[in-house]
Amino acid sequence: MTTDEVGTLTDHSAELGRLNTKKAQIVYALEHMPRGGTVEDVRRWLHKQGQVVPTASHARTIVNEWRARNGMTDTSGHVLLTPELIAELDKAEAPSPESPVEPAEPSKPAGAKGFYAVALMSIGVSVDTSWRFFEQRLGITDVVERVVLFSVMEAALVACGWAMRGGVRRDGRPGPARLVAWALTAFAAFAAFSLSGPVAGTARVLLGPVLGLVMLHLALGIEIRASRQRTTTWARVGRELRERLLSLLGLGDDHRDAAARTRDKAALRAAKLAIASRWTPRRKARLRKALHASHVAHDPVQRDRMLRELGVLQHADELAKISQPSPW
Fold it and tell me: What is the torsional sign of CA 241, 244, 248, 249?
């Protein structure tokens, strides 16, 4: 404790000693303590000054009267929210007009830089094809004229790629630019086949405009983003054909694993072979193999499934003899 603190305590103790009532001491403590103190703070302060500590109930009554007289409320030890303090808090939380919030940049697909690099390299193959096509097939020998003509298609491919990127970011669809890009690719294929024949021409097309366009698709995230909103008729037809093909192959999404599908097929095959005619080629050997593959010897559920299949096949002719009530 410093000399100043000792002097301060002595001064307060002397002043408190001159007061005759506990109420006067409590009021004196409230006037000399930091604002916002609680009843317990007042009692501790008086104890620190060497005075007899009043009871909590007695001190609370006097503290509440003093607060009401001075326009103060009980903050339970927290900082009192004055209008000035509220204004300072609002000013601190308000965003600064000098630093506007920048919109988040759309995320690029993983490996975008690598895709851009491959697309740029593939343009070299397309440029070589166009350069030779305009010289050997169209007879354009002037260098400047040839550069102007063959660069049109390469620039158009790049422009289509950026237009597709803008369309996807705007409404989730690549737009007509994709059709134009593939049309230019088809023309590049014609030029390559005309210049180098079917074998070398195919290599020029695949390693040139086709590869470049695919890399642009991947780099710009066009296929990934567009597939989320693909609701065209051809997309629905494609999904329907895919589901039917998977169902035909027994690979539909019915929550079965590969082992379960294999055993179910073997159980059905065993049931069919059991009622097959005696002239069926290798009937007994195939039946034993199907029974073994169906795992009916160790799986009661699978054995019951096979027996139900057999019962249905044996009594299929009796299905039409079952009398059903009229639905009308």
Answer: positive
